[in-house]
Predict the 3D structure of the following.
Amino acid sequence: MSRIAYVNGRYLPFRDAKVHVEDRGYQFADGVYEVCEVRGGKLIDQRRHLQRLVRSLGELRIRMPMPLAALGIVMREVVSRNRIGYGLVYVQVTRGVARRDHAFPTPEVAPSLVVTARSLNQSRNEALAAKGIAVVSVPDNRWGRVDIKTIGLLPNVLARQAAIERGARDAWFVDKDGRVTEGASTNAWIATPDGKVVTRAPDQAILQGITRSVLFEAIKAQGLAVEERPFTLKEAYAAREAFVTAATQIVLPVVRIDGHMIGDGKPGPIASALRRAFHRYAEAG
Ligand code: PLP
C-alpha cells in the first residue's frame, strides 16, 4: 500500500507529494510543526497539540491554513488512509510560497499545509524503554525562542548526530550556566536521591512538551513531589533516575549520561511507573 500525504488541499500518493521550491519552509525554515502519537488508531492529545500549533503560528504571525476543526479531520483522515494503528501523525504549516525575500510576502500568501503519518514499531519502542537509553550533553546553541515549535531544527539535528556518533541515543542541551535545558527532541527529567521529580520550568528556553504537561497529572496522582526548576549536569549525574518525554516516546528511561551510570544503570521504578500510567491521563480521540 502506498503512503498517502495531504498537501495543500489534496490527498496524494507519496511520490506525488511535493511542495514548491520557493516554499518558505524550504527556503528559510519559516514554519512550524506538530507531532501526535497514534495508538489503537486514535490520536493522542490531539486537542492539546493543535492548541500548541495555534500558539506557535500566532507567535510567528503565520495564518492558520484552515479552521482548527477541519485540520483535526484532515489529520484523522491521513491516519485512516494510511491505516496507522500505532505510529505518528505529522503536521507542518509554513508561511507559504513567494519569491525569495526574507521579509514576509506582500500581499500575504496562503500558508502551506502538509500532513503525513507513519507506523512505528511498538515492540521495538517497548524494548528500548525496558533497556533505557544513553544520552550525551551538548552546548545549547539554539535561538532564544525554542518555546515555538519551528521546523528550524539544525542544532537539534547536529546534537542528535553527535549523540549517535558518541554511542548514545539522545542529546541533552546544556545552557551557559551548566544547566540542562531539554533533549534534542524531548524534555529532560531527573528524580533526585530523595525521590523528587525535577524538570525545567516552561520558559523560552524549552519547548513546553505536551507529554510533559500531561505527565504532571500522573506524577500528582502517584503522590510524587515535583519541582519545576533547572538542574545542572552534575546533579543529573548523581540523580537516582533520569528520563525523557516526547509524544512518540512517552516516558523513556535514561540510564547513562555522558558515560555516568544513573542509579543502578537500569530503568528506575519512577520512570517505569509513569510510563505505564501515562495514557490514563492523555486524551484519545
Ligand atoms: N523538546 C523538543 C525540542 C522537542 O522537539 C519535543 C518534541 O518533538 C519535545 C520537547 C517534547 O514535546 P512533546 O511532548 O509535545 O512531544
